[in-house]
Design brief:
Length: about 260
């Protein structure tokens, strides 16, 4: 083989049953990886795993809430007990609580930070030894264009969480470089996923988003998944600490007014 594949690799993907996470899982499976998907919904996990296994794809899953310490412990224990190695961790699970800043409560902020930041930090550190022992380990953080540009249709809490993820991404890339673990971030703009559906179903807001994007359209989950696949491959063995935008050049335009 020419190396443009994920054969022999095991990847754990949080938020793996919908949107970008689901697309990443499918891309990894098609490229020969063994995957572990995580979601809060047991029904979604069971249905997807069954569907993939019927197609002869090596997919496994666990229902757990990575926004809680108990949920993350369950994910790590499942990975450790069921799989000999772990090569790739995709920190994709994320939420947004759509309120104005003055309406945000501290509970809202704690919740969004727990899912978007704490899960990435805690899973990365708890799976560090497995990623190190696998050789050429890869951590892929699904960040957002909101960590680079202010987006009026989003929220302060979401912007804060993705900014924190970026700093974690860069620190781990430096700290773990000696261990041959690469750490990179992907920054999507509006993608046709369940997370953005509230905004995208509003025709006026959708038009503003599309008009603000040089490529003139909303992105598709598969367009993010292909970048994740490259970062998971040994072909990207000298790529670490990078921030890759998947945004149709939106970030080169500037701020989108509310």
């Amino acid at each position: 083989m020419n190396g443009w594949n994920l054969e022999g690799k095991t990847a754990l993907i949080t938020g793996g049953t919908k949107g970008i996470g689901k697309a990443i899982n499918e891309e990894f499976l098609e490229l020969g990886a063994k995957t572990i998907i995580v979601s809060r919904s047991k029904e979604d996990i069971e249905q997807l795993v069954s569907d993939y296994q019927k197609r002869g794809l090596n997919c496994h899953g666990i229902a757990a809430d990575v926004g809680t310490e108990e949920g993350r412990r369950e994910v790590v224990e499942f990975s450790n007990s069921h799989f000999d190695s772990l090569n790739v961790l995709v920190n994709n699970a994320g939420i947004n609580i759509r309120k104005s800043t003055q309406d945000y409560s501290l509970d809202d902020l704690h919740k969004i930070m727990a899912v978007n930041v704490e899960s990435s930090f805690d899973l990365s550190r708890k799976l560090y030894s497995r990623l190190k022992s696998a050789g050429n380990g890869s951590v892929i953080n699904i960040s957002s264009i909101t960590s680079m540009s202010i987006v009026g249709t989003s929220t302060a809490g979401y912007h804060m969480s993705k900014g924190a993820m970026d700093r974690l991404n860069d620190f781990l890339a430096v700290e773990w470089g000696k261990d041959n673990i690469r750490v990179n971030a992907i920054h999507p703009w509006y993608i046709a996923t369940p997370l953005g559906k509230e905004i995208l179903k509003d025709e006026a807001k959708r038009k503003k988003i599309v008009d603000s994007t040089p490529m003139g359209r909303v992105g598709e989950p598969e367009e993010v998944a292909s970048i994740a696949a490259f970062l998971a491959m040994d072909k990207s063995s000298y790529v670490s600490g990078s921030h890759i935008t998947v945004d149709g050049a939106f970030s080169k335009v500037g701020v989108m007014p509310q």
